[in-house]
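Service request form, structural biology core

Requester: graduate student, group of Dr. S.
Request type: structure prediction, single chain
Budget code: on file
Notes: please return the result as structure tokens.

Sequence provided:
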Amino acid sequence: MLNPQAKAIRCIEWLLLFSSLILFVVGTVLGDTFFLRLATEALIFGGLAMSVDLLLGIVGLLSLGQALYFGFGAYLSALVLKQIAPSFSLAIGIVVLCSTLLGWVASFIALRSKGVYFALITFGLAQVAAKVVYNTRSLGASDGMMGVPILSIWTPFGLLDTANPGTFFIITLLTIGALYAVLKYFLTTPMGSLWHAIRSNEDRLAYVGFKSKGPKQVAFVLATVVAAVSGALYPMLRGFVSPELMFFSVSGNAVVTVVLGGVGTLIGPIMGSVLLTSFKSIIGTWTAHHHIVIGLIFVVIVISAPKGLAGLLTKYFGKGGSNE
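Core staff response, request fulfilled:
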């Protein structure tokens, strides 16, 4: 028997899935490209925001450098697709393995500190990596890497052409959905309970016989893999990667997306990404000063819904559930 909050989250999940399928059907029938690609991009950056939410909302660690792992996944995916083979499973497999190793190594550096010092270390690591990539000629330097080939994914029912916006939207939806399912599974395990305990009061964890270092390291590595796999989808959508993917603006946008969607909900960052990406694209076609308009909308939403969009919907659906 689900409690009202869990029931409300389940309603939001079904609402998002149903909306995605309607968008896919309508977009495919009408031959739309713009909105399907926009929704695909929103899902990709939703995956990045989900990794920030795991650290910030579940474990209580504010990362200001998650763009490092997003950009790492994007560059590695582009290299595999261009230099080795245009294979979706090969690119994702290599990104998962390498990002696990990268996250494990980075966790020893970042988790040496807490609070604002942890945030500054993650920020510093991302800045260093972005500068290195920006000045590396073999990675395209400031121009980035272009000409990432279009993929054809083999399935028992035939080849899927990712050049089709509807097809790649479904592939992205399944990939981000799988990442979301993995994170939700972890939250139901004892590891998930330890993460919540660390966020509530890390110092008291030792009094009940647990150390915080191991669970924090697992969360850090998991967040790295989620960000990197999301980034691996980017060159498949755009056909190029650039050093800007590792810049602070990308990490900052991910934090804003989490706050907008709802901290600690996992589903909230995806909703926030859909809203923020739509605002950027649609308002950007109306005025060159779209950042001012988006900033004002952000302030209004944060004031009227302090727990984000997911909190607002949870309150609404929760009331419906409690009245039954």
